[in-house]
């Protein structure tokens, strides 16, 4: 039962609860009209302390499509945050106004702090370079819909695996399903953090690390590309040196399997050439749409409106 709970880390939900969210999302996809008044009278607050296109707007669209309403901000400087209000006080106030809140923050752990002071469910919509659990809902719903299963998959994660919160949450989630393995493709400076590798080791999850996308692309079921994130670097020169480490183009796609799918949480900068967009294996725009359905299902579950 997810009613009243927070989603801060993807491990806050079990595999069975994930599957229930995806089953509900599938029902919404099949018959969206049936759900168009399910959240009548309910309010979602979106508190975005960091820029976003997909996450904020898909959350807001999700609530509107369920018949609910939305309050919030996309620019904290227009709120009392600019006067020094703490997260604890802001969330206490929002708890008086809304029924569920989605929060994005540049600082790791900020949504967790909010959840400690909140009287309503808090959803982590991305915290710094840490976790992005609802992107993972979008990713897994996409994989399940296209591949038909979330098990027995060879998943390549490519790009900024150090600060890439979507990759951190994806690895945790896909590790819950049977016989998945990971190929971690990154420059030395942007490798997956040790704490995630230790967890994979403890759970006997198979993984390998490499710098060479070309050498492994032919062996993957899923290629999850990520952006090298300028906003996470302290040093601009280091960012410029690493930003084009990987560019997926038609030539590289020649060596990949015909059933491999390409995912990307977006936004992209240079890491996927536009010429790849027409390839039937490019699923990143579909993935963004699945994100809306996954968030509809999540909102319903947290509000207990799924019964
Ligand atoms: N995938 C994702 O988090 O995109 P936004 O930053 O646009 O929300």
Please tell me about this protein's structure.
By secondary structure, the protein is an alpha/beta fold. The chain folds into two domains: 135 residues, Aspartate/ornithine carbamoyltransferase (Rossmann fold); 155 residues, Aspartate/ornithine carbamoyltransferase (Rossmann fold), CATH 3.40.50.1370. The protein contains eleven helices and nine strands. The strands form two sheets. A five-stranded parallel beta sheet has the order 7-6-5-8-9, with no helix packed on it. A four-stranded parallel beta sheet has the order 2-1-3-4, sandwiched between helices. The protein is globular. The structure holds phosphoric acid mono(formamide)ester. The site of phosphoric acid mono(formamide)ester (CP) has 9 residues, from helix 2.
In short:
Carbamoyl phosphate binds at residues 54-55, 104, 132, 135, 266-267. The chain is of the alpha/beta class. The protein has helices spanning 15-30, 54-65, 87-97, 110-117, 133-147, 165-174, 194-202, 213-216, 236-242, 250-253, 284-303; strands at residues 43-48, 69-73, 100-105, 122-127, 154-158, 181-185, 206-210, 222-225, 261-263.
The residue-averaged pLDDT reads 96
Would you report the number of β strands? 9
Query: Structural class of the helices, strands and pairings?
Result: alpha/beta
Q: Structurally, how many domains make up the residues?
A: 2
Protein name: Aspartate carbamoyltransferase
Pathway: Pyrimidine metabolism; UMP biosynthesis via de novo pathway; (S)-dihydroorotate from bicarbonate: step 2/3
InterPro entries: Asp/Orn_carbamoyltranf_P-bd (IPR006132), Asp/Orn_carbamoylTrfase (IPR006130), Asp/Orn_carbamoylTrfase_sf (IPR036901), Asp_carbamoyltransf (IPR002082), Asp_carbamoyltransf_Asp/Orn-bd (IPR006131)
Binding site for carbamoyl phosphate: 54-55, 104, 132, 135, 266-267
């Amino acid at each position: 039962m997810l009613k009243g709970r927070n989603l801060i880390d993807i491990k806050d939900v079990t595999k069975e609860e994930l599957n229930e969210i995806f089953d509900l999302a599938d029902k919404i996809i099949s018959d969206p009209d049936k759900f168009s008044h399910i959240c009548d009278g309910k309010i979602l607050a979106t508190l975005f302390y960091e820029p976003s296109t997909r996450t904020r707007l898909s959350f807001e669209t999700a609530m509107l499509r369920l018949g609910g309403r939305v309050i919030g901000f996309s620019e904290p400087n227009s709120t009392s945050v600019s006067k020094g209000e703490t997260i604890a006080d802001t969330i206490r106030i929002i708890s008086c106004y809304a029924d569920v809140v989605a929060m994005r923050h540049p600082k790791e752990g900020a949504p967790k702090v909010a959840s400690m002071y909140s009287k309503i469910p808090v959803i982590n919509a991305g915290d710094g370079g840490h976790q992005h659990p609802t992107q993972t809902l979008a990713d897994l719903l996409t994989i399940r819909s296209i591949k038909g299963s979330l098990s027995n998959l060879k998943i390549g994660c490519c790009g900024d695996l150090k600060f890439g919160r979507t990759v951190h949450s994806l690895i945790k989630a896909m590790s819950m399903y049977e016989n998945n393995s990971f190929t971690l493709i990154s420059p030395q400076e942007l490798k997956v953090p040790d704490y995630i590798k230790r967890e994979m080791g403890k759970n006997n999850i198979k993984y390998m690390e490499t710098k060479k996308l070309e050498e492994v692309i032919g062996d993957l079921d899923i290629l999850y590309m990520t952006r090298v994130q300028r906003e996470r670097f302290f040093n601009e020169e280091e960012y410029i040196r690493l930003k084009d480490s990987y560019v997926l183009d038609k030539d590289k796609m020649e060596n990949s399997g015909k059933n491999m799918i390409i995912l990307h949480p977006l936004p992209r900068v240079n890491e996927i050439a536009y010429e790849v967009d027409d390839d039937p294996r490019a699923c990143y725009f579909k993935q963004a749409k699945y994100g809306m359905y996954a968030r509809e299902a999540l909102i319903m579950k947290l509000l207990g409106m799924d019964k």
